[in-house]
């Protein structure tokens, strides 16, 4: 590619909106442009990187026996009604659409329903199983707080795969292959990552892992044991942590506080900001019938289990919509009286910190029900009323837990019959009987991977791409392409050699000052740079500099292609 014909549009300063280094650098490098909140155009340079990630993902998926297809982005409501998710899918996350006939559709946040519909129609016999399908496609999730550019976007690109099986053993086998394929993908992309056990929410069982790129800016907390391979998303670690660590909290069920926020609307507004996206507000009823605002981590069933086992709360938990909060605490914009919180019992620092933000720490320690473990009710069966901290004993029994942050770039999941059952996805087994298929699903946030990789690899000069992800593997920077015939001839010839060798090469023949060309090549993260100037050419030499090298070194012009390949 010749830069003069290409489109490079870099910025000296990052726009104010960007907080994370990856977001700033992607904007400065001109990889992405924001169109609306959480909605981005992938500019030519960014698209090249995205395509490189896709290529690695595609090759590993195919090597693992997955077959590519392409499903529609817009999905009919009927399928979601069959699976029971049309009403339930996380409130607000789904972008719902009506067509001209007033029929309901959504822009797909995920594709379990569509693929299950295909499998039930196309697969009839055990002889066709197992099958694994994947696609690389645009998803839309109307995230409460889109941020960090493409890291948490509303429209984003996911590789999603779905496997179908005659029995659980076959699912476990494919799950293992996917685990390995994901490990290969992230290793080939040069990422420092960790596979961690993840909560399976309503499905149950142990079959779920997230692939987390390790970065301090990550939104997820990971508990891991340096002395074994135990690693889990902290939500899950809290559930499996052994008894006999620190004692269960004897804190009261709820505190009563006069909130810092004074009106119900203020409270609703505060909660909807979703300060920490892992915290949700739930309204439950205490034993005396008074509403209690409970702040819980995440959206997982685990919290319902906790609520019931720990607090004896019978009311089924519904995640509080603004209307539910208003209904529970009084109508309209009236002033908010004292509110009960459960931040202490659901012993979690994030939750407790959020409660403090709402109350300003201004709370009266009142036992709304006076529940005390062991005295008023049996000790909870799940040893999960814990606030895991570094140094706690690891569930593996081998050492102490350490805690780090991660960016979830992949998630694999044994769905079992969660979709196949309600949607009647069956096959004829060896005995000629109808049997429900076992199913797995496997996602990679392809567009998020680009941001996550940059989050791990940059310096004060810009992005540092690995060869596998770089928009161009090598850039030729001629010193005076328009001025010197010798330089131009050598640059053109080298460009031809790289192209013929199949190396992705950028010839920066733009009519710009050398300083601009050099700075741009560093900002956009090209891993290898060859600078060609009159002086070096006299000795048959060019300057080579790897993106991580502190300085350039002379290399014979004749050997430079071999040097980089
Ligand atoms: P998160 O916990 O970050 O919200 P998720 O658990 O909701 O992600 P999954 O449903 O597991 O996401 O989707 C598979 C993958 O898609 C995730 O592992 C992640 O890499 C990616 N992904 C999910 N939501 C987004 C988003 N809003 N923007 C970019 N990538 C996303
Ligand atoms: Mg999510
Ligand atoms: Mg997640
Ligand atoms: Mg996930």
TrEMBL record:
Top-level enzyme category: ligase
List keywords of the entry alphabetically: Aminoacyl-tRNA synthetase, ATP-binding, Cytoplasm, Ligase, Nucleotide-binding, Protein biosynthesis
| Classification via InterPro entries | aa-tRNA-synt_IIb, aa-tRNA-synth_II, aa-tRNA-synth_II/BPL/LPL, Anticodon-bd, Anticodon-bd_dom_sf, Pro-tRNA-ligase_IIa, Pro-tRNA-synth_IIa_bac-type, Pro-tRNA-Synthase_IIa_type1
Swiss-Prot/TrEMBL catalytic activity: tRNA(Pro) + L-proline + ATP = L-prolyl-tRNA(Pro) + AMP + diphosphate
* Chief subcellular location: cytoplasm
Which GO terms fall under biological process for this protein?
prolyl-tRNA aminoacylation
* Residue stretches making up the Aminoacyl-transfer RNA synthetases class-II family profile domain: 33-471
Q: Which SUPFAM superfamilies match?
A: Class II aaRS ABD-related, Class II aaRS and biotin synthetases, YbaK/ProRS associated domain
Pfam families in the cross-refs: HGTP_anticodon, tRNA-synt_2b, tRNA_edit
EC number(s) on file? 6.1.1.15
GO cellular-component term (any): cytosol
Can you say where in the cell this protein is located? Cytoplasm
Under the GO molecular function aspect, what terms does this record hold?
Answer: aminoacyl-tRNA deacylase activity; ATP binding; proline-tRNA ligase activity
Q: Which PROSITE patterns match?
A: AA_TRNA_LIGASE_II
NCBIfam families named among the record's database cross-references: PRK09194.1, proS_fam_II
Q: How does it assemble?
A: Homodimer.
Q: In the UniProt entry, what is the domain comment? A: Consists of three domains: the N-terminal catalytic domain, the editing domain and the C-terminal anticodon-binding domain.
What role is this protein assigned? Catalyzes the attachment of proline to tRNA(Pro) in a two-step reaction: proline is first activated by ATP to form Pro-AMP and then transferred to the acceptor end of tRNA(Pro). As ProRS can inadvertently accommodate and process non-cognate amino acids such as alanine and cysteine, to avoid such errors it has two additional distinct editing activities against alanine. One activity is designated as 'pretransfer' editing and involves the tRNA(Pro)-independent hydrolysis of activated Ala-AMP.
What family is this? Belongs to the class-II aminoacyl-tRNA synthetase family. ProS type 1 subfamily.
**UniProt protein name:** Proline--tRNA ligase
The organism's lineage is: Bacteria, Pseudomonadati, Pseudomonadota, Betaproteobacteria, Neisseriales
Please name the gene that encodes this protein: proS
């Amino acid at each position: 590619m010749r830069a003069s014909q290409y489109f490079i549009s870099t910025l000296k300063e990052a726009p104010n909106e960007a907080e994370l280094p990856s977001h700033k650098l992607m904007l400065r490098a001109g990889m992405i442009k924001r169109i609306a909140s959480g909605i981005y155009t992938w500019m030519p340079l960014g698209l090249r990187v995205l395509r490189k990630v896709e290529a690695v993902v595609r090759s590993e998926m195919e090597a693992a026996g997955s077959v590519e297809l392409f499903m529609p982005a817009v999905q009919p409501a009927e399928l979601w009604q069959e699976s029971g998710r049309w009403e339930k899918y996380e409130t607000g996350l789904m972008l719902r659409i009506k067509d001209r006939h007033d029929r309901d559709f959504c822009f797909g946040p995920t594709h379990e329903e569509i693929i299950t519909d295909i499998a039930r129609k196309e697969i009839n016999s055990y002889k066709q199983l197992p099958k694994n399908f994947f696609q690389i496609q645009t998803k839309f999730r109307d995230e409460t707080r889109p941020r960090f550019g493409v890291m948490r976007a509303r429209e984003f690109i996911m590789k999603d795969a779905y496997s179908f099986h005659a029995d659980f053993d076959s699912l476990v086998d494919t799950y293992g292959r996917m685990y390995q394929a994901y490990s290969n993908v992230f290793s080939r992309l040069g990422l420092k990552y960790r596979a961690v056990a993840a909560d399976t929410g309503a499905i149950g069982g142990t079959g779920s892992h997230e692939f987390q790129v390790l970065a301090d800016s990550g939104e997820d907390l990971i508990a891991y044991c340096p002395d074994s391979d135990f690693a889990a998303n902290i939500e899950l670690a809290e559930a499996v942590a052994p008894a006999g660590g620190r004692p269960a909290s004897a804190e009261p069920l709820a505190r009563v506080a006069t909130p810092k926020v004074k009106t119900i609307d203020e409270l609703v507004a505060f909660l909807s900001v979703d300060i920490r996206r892992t915290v949700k507000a739930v309204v439950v009823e205490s034993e005396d019938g008074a509403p209690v605002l409970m702040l819980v981590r995440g959206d997982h069933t685990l919290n319902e289990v906790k609520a019931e086992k720990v607090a004896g709360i019978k009311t089924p938990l519904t995640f509080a919509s603004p209307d539910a909060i208003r209904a529970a605490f009084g109508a309209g914009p009236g002033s908010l009286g004292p509110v009960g919180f459960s931040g202490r019992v659901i012993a979690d620092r994030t939750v407790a910190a959020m409660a403090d933000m709402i109350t300003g720490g201004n709370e009266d320690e009142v036992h709304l029900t006076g529940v005390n473990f062991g005295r008023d009710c049996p000790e909870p069966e799940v040893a999960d009323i814990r606030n895991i901290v570094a140094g706690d004993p690891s569930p593996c029994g081998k050492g102490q837990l350490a805690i780090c942050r991660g960016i979830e770039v992949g998630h694999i999941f044994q769905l079992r019959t969660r979709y196949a059952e309600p949607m009647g996805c069956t096959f004829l087994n060896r005995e000629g009987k109808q049997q429900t298929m076992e199913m797995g699903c496997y996602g990679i946030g392809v567009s998020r991977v680009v941001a996550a990789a940059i989050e791990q690899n940059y310096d004060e000069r810009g992005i540092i791409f690995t060869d596998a992800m770089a928009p161009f593997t090598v850039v030729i920077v001629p010193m005076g392409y328009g001025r010197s015939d010798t330089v131009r001839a050598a640059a053109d010839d080298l460009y031809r050699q790289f192209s013929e060798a199949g190396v992705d090469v950028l010839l920066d023949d733009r009519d710009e000052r050398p300083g601009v060309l050099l700075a741009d090549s560093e900002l956009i993260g090209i891993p290898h740079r060859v600078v060609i100037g009159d002086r070096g050419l006299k000795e048959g030499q060019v300057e080579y500099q790897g993106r991580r090298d502190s300085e350039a070194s002379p290399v014979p012009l004749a050997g430079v292609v071999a040097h980089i390949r």
